[in-house]
Amino acid sequence: MAQKVNVLICGSGSAGLCAGLWLSRYGIPCTILDSRSEAMKMGQADGVQCRTVEVFDSFGLAEELLREAYHVLEDTFWADDGHGRIVRTRSTFDTEPGLSIHPHVILNQARVNGMMIEAMGKLGQGISYGYLVKSVAVDREKVDEENSYPITVVTEKDGKEEIFRANYVLGCDGAHSAVRRSLGFQMIGDSTDSVWGVMDIYPLTNFPDIRKKSIIHSSSGTILIIPREGGSLCRFYIQLPPGTNAKSVALEDLYRRARDIFSPYEMDFAGNFWWSAYSIGQRLADRFEESNRVFLLGDACHTHSPKAGQGMNTSLQDGYNIGWKLGSILSGLSPPSLLQTYVSERHKVAHELITFDQNLTSILSSSSSPSSPTPTTKDAPQTNGTSKSEKFTEMFLQSARYTAGLTASYNESVVVKVTAGQKSLASKVDVGMRFASTQVVRWCDAKAMQIVKALPADGRWRIVVLGGDICSERSRERLHALTRYLSSPESPISIHTPAGKDIDSFIETLLVLSGSRLEVEQDQIPSFFFPVSGKWGMKDLHKVFFDDESYNSGHGHAYDFYGTDPNEGAVIIVRPDQYVSMVTSLDDHAGLGKFFAGFSLKQR
Question: Per the database record, which ranges form the Phenol hydroxylase-like C-terminal dimerisation domain (predicted)?
Answer without folding.
Answer: 409-603
